[in-house]
């Protein structure tokens, strides 16, 4: 398996300095390994057909993630494990995504990999696919139903809590902050926000003056923050729960001539570059794009009869002043509006599945 760097498509591996392959061992799992992977049944033999039911492909993070999926499929084709990849794009509409998944069921694909456009709207169609013996691997934005082969994600609640704790430390527990969230109703966005709340409750000196929800893109985030800057003359920190959101915030502050404030974020190249350029007090973590490739690999392992746990949690790295330069040293390998994600390989995936 080769590390994939998206070259032809502009949100949607050795590991980066300070982030070893061992650091990405699975830290959580629910229950014990199943005698056979959930959902998988019937006469399914390699080479397999994989369905990739994407909720939307416009954000660069999603495009990069799809790049890891297509690259992984190409590697698995070489070994005779995969035959075809069916890709759909629901363009942000959960009902359209349901229709796409139904079309994959009708086509009797062997596995469906999905980022959910809604945590509950997809439950029925996902359960139906599972009942028909199709391997279902859900990553990043998760469904509520447990009728899946595996759910793969970082701990979004921990993401929000750790970012909030960093902000508390930066401001000494006192100050006025703005919270920038991703789209409402998307589990990864909602869970990050929920994770931050207990920390905020424990530190009442940190006043949330307002918060906003935008797509994970720089332009809408910058526009939203520009409006908030006009309405709020005093802002001490930006608790941003997404990398493109952070970049949009920094750009809005800069355009309005406002002094930059401590800002959290993600491994978005633009945010990390602005962090260094503006001398920002910053903190970030990473939702690895290779979760997509790992999901395909997991589906194939399940179809081949391997035990796969129903929940696989990939640990979150921390990006701060001690290691941000090591990320930026590889920036030219990623799109200007992309995410600098760590390398991955089969050995890493096998370690994650073995825990």
From TrEMBL:
Keywords: Signal. Belongs to the bacterial solute-binding protein 2 family. The keyword RNA-binding does not apply. Residues 51-307 form the Periplasmic binding protein domain. The lineage of its organism: Bacteria, Pseudomonadati, Pseudomonadota, Alphaproteobacteria, Hyphomicrobiales. SUPFAM superfamilies: Periplasmic binding protein-like I. It is found in: Cell envelope. One of its GO terms (cellular component) is cell envelope. GO terms for molecular function: carbohydrate binding. Coiled coil: none annotated. Residues 1-35 form the signal peptide. This is ABC transporter substrate-binding protein. It comes from Neorhizobium lilium.
């Amino acid at each position: 398996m080769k590390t994939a760097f998206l070259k032809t498509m502009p949100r949607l591996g050795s590991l980066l300095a300070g982030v070893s392959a061992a650091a990405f061992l699975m830290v959580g799992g629910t229950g014990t390994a199943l005698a056979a992977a959930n959902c998988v049944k019937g006469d399914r033999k390699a080479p397999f057909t994989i369905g990739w039911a994407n909720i939307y492909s416009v954000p660069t993070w999603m495009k990069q993630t799809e790049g890891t999926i297509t690259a992984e499929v190409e590697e698995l084709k070489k070994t005779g494990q995969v035959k075809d990849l069916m890709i759909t794009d629901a363009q942000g509409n959960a009902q359209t995504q349901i229709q796409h998944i139904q079309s994959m069921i009708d086509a009797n694909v062997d596995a469906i990999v999905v980022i959910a456009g809604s945590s509950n709207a997809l439950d029925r169609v996902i359960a139906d696919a599972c009942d028909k013996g199709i391997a279902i691997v859900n990553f990043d934005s998760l469904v509520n139903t447990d009728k899946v082969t595996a759910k793969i994600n970082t701990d979004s609640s921990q993401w929000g809590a750790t970012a909030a704790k960093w902000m508390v430390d930066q401001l000494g527990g006192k100050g006025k902050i703005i919270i920038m969230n991703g789209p409402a109703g998307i589990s990864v966005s909602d869970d990050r926000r929920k994770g931050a709340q207990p920390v905020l409750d424990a530190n009442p000196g940190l006043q949330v003056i307002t918060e906003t929800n935008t797509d994970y893109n720089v332009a809408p985030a910058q526009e939203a923050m520009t409006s908030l800057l006009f309405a709020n003359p005093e802002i001490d920190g930006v608790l941003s729960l997404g990398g493109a959101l952070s970049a949009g915030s920094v750009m809005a502050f800069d355009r309005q001539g406002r002094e930059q404030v401590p800002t959290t974020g993600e491994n978005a190249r633009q945010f990390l570059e602005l962090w260094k350029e503006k001398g920002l007090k910053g903190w970030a973590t990473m939702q690895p794009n290779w979760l997509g490739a790992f999901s395909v690999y997991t589906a194939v392992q399940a179809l081949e009869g391997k035990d796969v746990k129903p929940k696989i949690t990939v640990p979150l790295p921390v990006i701060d002043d001690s290691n941000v330069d090591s990320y930026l040293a590889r920036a030219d390998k990623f799109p200007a509006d992309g995410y600098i994600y760590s390398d991955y390989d089969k050995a890493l995936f096998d370690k994650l599945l073995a825990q």
